[in-house]
Design a protein that fits this description.
Helix content: 40-55%
Number of strands: 8
Radius of gyration: 22 Å
Shape: globular
Strand order of the largest sheet: 2-1-3-4
């Protein structure tokens, strides 16, 4: 005979609303934290038997769709997110738009990640458009029990049982760990292989420090990384460094930096500082956290040349390419024993 506790749990589960039980195809906008947590989210929904459809990479058309839905004050990355939601809206049963919650005021996310579901609903409502938003408050970066509970609650909204939700969460965590470990391992191997070459034969190693949705979005930082590679440089990405190790190292820089992702980037800059020839800081205009963090890095991290770039959708790529080429020329001159070494 089942216990009273089990009976109560069964009654609660039966009464719990599952407004997205009919959503079989879930849209994942290829923007913002999908670049950081997309492997986790895809695995979670697929474990629950859903098809996941990721929007196409960003381009001018996606940006223009998002800009038409957005207010001017939104950052470039948020406008792109709205464009990706718009691209998915008529193609899927629901678009996944999470709100991310950190553990406390010193371990949190930018307010745009916290308010994202409201931003999307408001933008589409003001435009007289409809979009079915699958939202969730996810405790990313908090205690494990809180994170698990937030994903189990999300699974319940899709009609899953608690056991199914926990199984999906475990599968999601495995997928994310595997993805992160693979990227960190590949980068470490690249650094090690370069260090074994004679200094005169090594290509320039340049670290791109930017939010993943900036660094890996072809519309935002694509021209930057393309120009670096065209100049013959090896490009490393701060967001691909081991996150736990980077977070620990970041406390050498600041004990009060509140944003989780910026903390990871700062720690990676410190860890990779001696392995690279230069650092490129890339920000999407007008990012508040980056405006503080990038300036602090440029002022406080000594010993390597730093190039700071702010990307917006209005300027062309020619200026970016020229600045990158000049930066590479300086690093090459330094490598050859020029005045910067003197």
């Amino acid at each position: 005979m089942p216990s009273a506790r089990r009976v109560r749990r069964a009654l609660v589960a039966a009464a719990a609303p599952a407004p997205f039980a009919d959503a079989r195809v879930i849209g994942l906008p290829r923007a913002l934290m999908t670049y950081r947590l997309g492997a986790k989210w895809r695995a979670f929904f697929e474990e629950l038997g859903r098809e996941v459809r990721v929007s196409e990479p960003s381009d001018r058309g996606v940006f223009e769709r998002g800009q038409a839905l957005s207010v001017d004050e939104c950052c470039l990355a948020s406008k792109l997110f709205l464009g990706h939601v718009d691209a998915l809206a008529g193609e899927v049963d629901a678009v996944f738009v999470p709100s991310l919650s950190g553990s406390d005021a010193l371990h949190t996310y930018c307010t745009k990640f916290q308010a994202l579901p409201d931003l999307v609903r408001s933008a589409f409502a003001l435009a007289g458009r409809e979009v079915r938003v699958l939202d969730a408050l996810l405790a990313e970066g908090g205690a494990e029990k809180d994170e698990r509970a937030s994903y189990v609650e999300l699974a319940a909204r899709l009609g899953a049982t608690r056991r199914e939700g926990e199984r999906a969460w475990r599968a999601a965590c495995r997928a994310q760990r595997d993805r992160d470990a693979s990227l960190a391992r590949a980068q470490a191997e690249l650094v090690a292989a370069s260090s074994r070459l004679p200094r005169t034969e090594r290509p320039l190693a340049i670290l791109v420090a930017a939010h993943p949705y900036v660094a890996h979005d072809p519309f935002v930082a694509g021209p930057v990384t393309d120009a670096l590679r065209a100049a013959g440089a090896t490009v490393l990405f701060a967001d691909e460094f081991d996150h736990a190790r980077a977070t620990r190292r970041s406390y050498d820089f600041s004990a009060t930096l509140p944003w989780i992702v910026n903390r990871e980037l700062v720690g990676a800059v410190l860890e990779l500082h001696d392995a690279v020839d230069g650092i490129v800081l890339v920000s999407a205009f007008p990012c508040g956290p980056d405006s503080m963090t990038d300036d602090a890095i440029a002022l406080c991290v000594k010993g390597r040349p730093v190039l700071t770039l702010t990307v917006d959708a209005q300027s062309g790529t020619a200026g970016v390419e020229t600045r990158v080429e000049s930066f590479v020329d300086i690093l090459t001159y330094q490598r050859r024993g020029g005045y910067l070494n003197g």
